[in-house]
Design goal:
nine-stranded mixed sheet, about 290 residues, six-stranded antiparallel sheet, 15 strands, alpha+beta, signal, about 15% helix, disordered N terminus
Length: about 290
């Protein structure tokens, strides 16, 4: 059984082959550019490297066929990230397709599967936003699985580098003091023909250390320590669950919509790689 640290990782043989092929192509490209007296731009270097996506389709999705997800799922992310450690992404789902699961894959990250979100059957969730780390110029893929098992895929190319190794925003002492604290914000309801659509935002204090960051004083690597599982309920209904990895940013943050009246009590539960469990109830009117 895989430990939480290995969730979303490619098998070693696949990683070695992918890296070898990509490195060879990149070296040949750089050598050619050097011979011509030019230095390749990051965009050109990224284009020359072999895509990791075909191997990920095999390793993560068992080579299942995928349909073009245009109109079924939309993926929004900045073309060039301001901060590679906190890149905002937004998923929008077509409710008519009854999407039950979405896997977010950052192709060139050390652990490509950022998160898998499972959506409650009667949650009415159509939008979900979070923040991720991006370690290199890469495609980000979102793969949605419908109730009938059909997979729909969309992608977005993002220019960013170093997000998985970027220093934490807070020092370890400050992070430990607030570890696991949760807040929930509720926003004004949007009226719909069939009722009301509520919007909420869950924020969790957690360093979500990737294992690739260094202590800025000792220069030693900080051990990986991140949230692996999250569940969110409203009024006893499952809104969504998440299985996450090192690509989710420090202090995980999730904004989402759901069908309801806004009077529901929320319950959030998170578990991290050290086995710590954080839970909190949010009655209507609380945060």
């Amino acid at each position: 059984m895989l430990t939480p640290l290995h969730r979303g990782r490619r098998p070693r043989s696949s990683v070695r082959l992918s890296l070898a092929a990509g490195t060879t192509a990149l070296c040949l490209f750089i050598a050619g550019a050097a011979h011509a007296g030019t230095t390749p731009s990051p965009e050109e270097a990224a284009a020359a490297a072999e895509s990791s996506w075909p191997g990920l389709v095999t390793d993560v999705f068992d080579d299942r066929p995928m349909q073009d997800g245009t109109g079924v799922i939309a993926l929004e992310a900045p073309a060039r990230a301001t901060d590679p450690a906190i890149v905002p992404v937004k998923l929008t789902l077509d409710p008519a397709k009854k999407i039950r699961k979405v896997t977010l894959v950052i192709d060139e990250n050390p652990s490509p599967v950022a998160a898998t979100f499972t959506i409650g059957a009667d949650a009415g969730l159509t939008e979900l936003e979070t923040r991720v780390r991006v370690n290199a110029y890469t495609d980000i893929h979102a793969v949605a699985e419908a109730e009938d098992g059909t997979l729909y895929m969309v992608k977005r190319f993002v220019k960013a580098a170093g997000g998985c190794a970027a220093p934490a925003a807070k020092d370890a002492v400050a992070a430990a003091k607030s570890l696991g604290q949760m807040r929930l914000k509720r926003f004004a309801a949007e009226a719909e023909a069939e009722g009301e659509r509520q919007v909420a935002q869950l924020m969790i204090r957690h360093p979500n250390n990737s294992g690739l960051q260094k202590d800025q004083v000792t220069l030693l690597y900080i051990p990986a320590h991140f949230i692996t599982d999250l569940s969110v309920e409203a009024g006893g209904r499952e809104i969504f669950t998440m299985s996450g990895g090192i690509s989710i940013s420090e202090d995980p943050n999730f904004r989402f919509d759901y069908a309801g009246k806004g009077e529901e009590t929320f319950h959030a539960k998170a578990t991290d790689t050290e086995g710590s469990v954080f839970e909190k109830d949010f009655p209507a009117g609380s945060s």
